[in-house]
Amino acid sequence: MKPPRVRLRYVGLLSLVASIAAVGCGALFSLIVSRRLQPWELGEWRYISSIFTYFLIPLNVLNFWTVRYVSRGFQVYSTVALTGLLAGVFASLSFHMLSPLLVDRLEYMVIVAASLQLFTMFMAGSINSLALGFKPQVAQYGAMSFEIIKTVVAYFLVLLLRMKLVGAFISVTFAFVAKALIEFLMIRDAEWKGFNPGFLKDVIRLSWLPLYSTFVSSLASLDVIIVTALLGETVSIGFWTAAFTIGNLPSIALSLSAGLYPHLLREVRVKDVELSTRLVYMLSTPITLGVILIAEPLLNILRPEYTAVWPAASILAVNSYLLGILLISSTSLMGSEDIELKNKAFKPYLKSVLFKLPSLNLARFTVYLAMLVTFFSLFKPNTVSDTVALWAAIRLLANLPFSLYVTYWSSRCLKWSPPFKQMGKYFVLSLFMIPPVLLAKPHSLSIQAVDAFLELTPSILLGASVYLILLYVFDKEFRSLVWSVLRFLRTYYLVYASRDDRKPYD
After folding, report:
1. Which stretches of the chain drop beneath a pLDDT of 50?
2. pTM (predicted TM-score)
């Protein structure tokens, strides 16, 4: 069965809602777990979760090729689902047997619960990759259900029943099972018959490509280790984490391009890349400016001490804004590459985007890490604020040339033009947020997190309202998007409301 057409705006809006749900529910889940687990238990939970990363490498390889093959109409559904289940059983048993070497002094039930979670991660991960390739919107429904169910189950098991570490693992396990079931039911109309051993041969033969990409991505996390070694302290790392959390808020707009990759794998169209870019910057532009304006009170919500690093948060917000076009350009290059359909030899893959793009990222991360070593060896900032600000500036300077080059590369290969005119319009309209945001901005910062958030809410709502009203007046595409959402909601009401309730619309 050929995958249905991907509706970019529909998938993007669903992904945005899922991202917001993930932020809200994720914060509640973290609060529940942090309040009920002892510090050493919380550390063990984080440690086991990091160990899972290595056990999940085979799943990442399988998922990389699953999305590409399913999006192009290959019937590999049963093959992927069965392979994911078998790999999950093997990984779960392996973790269980190796647990005495990997983790020490943990209760047996904790090991059992962790092993079950690892199995469900394989099961849900394989189904999720099928959903991303077949119906990307299904993956967004699955993501929302996962976050909500995980938080609700944790409320009962961890907070009320005080099952501690076992309850935390069971909560996540239950959420993964529900996510897999929901996504499977929503893509059950796919072709599930037959087994495709040729696909597995291709996955194994070409596994070096996603493994190489995974290795390159892992280099980015070395910055924390390098800075810690150079400074000889870890206090700055905590402040960096806070600044990064706030400065990374504009990246939530990237969820609006969630449907671009599977769509390009089906059919490469220039206007779809341009549409995704406009949608992303329609949202990321006001968020970036908003973070710069209220970085200090936003950091205060996390912890009052973190307000000192508001310059770094502002720089990182600009960095996130810049990375938007880098990631869209990278996605367009990856989605337009079809080397696996043309050639079975090894050498052509070295000339493909699938290898060149990770190699370019390798150069980017190498330059970034080299700049960190150089600057922090030559300069020794006197305060934590200066340290984190320098770190953020280095990150921005390292990403800038590579972002421009990848954008140029993508526009040249796909013959598309970055919508700089529309991006400029979004920036100008965002400037009108400044007066109301600053007027409603709290002048004194509360110590309590809830009070600090409530005091900042009017500033956020007022700024967002001004921008959205102006955007509706001056942007035709946004007006079309609003009316599309209203038509969808009206259709949903007509379908699911009772017959009597539908009379006014008839």
Report:
1. 496-506
2. 0.86
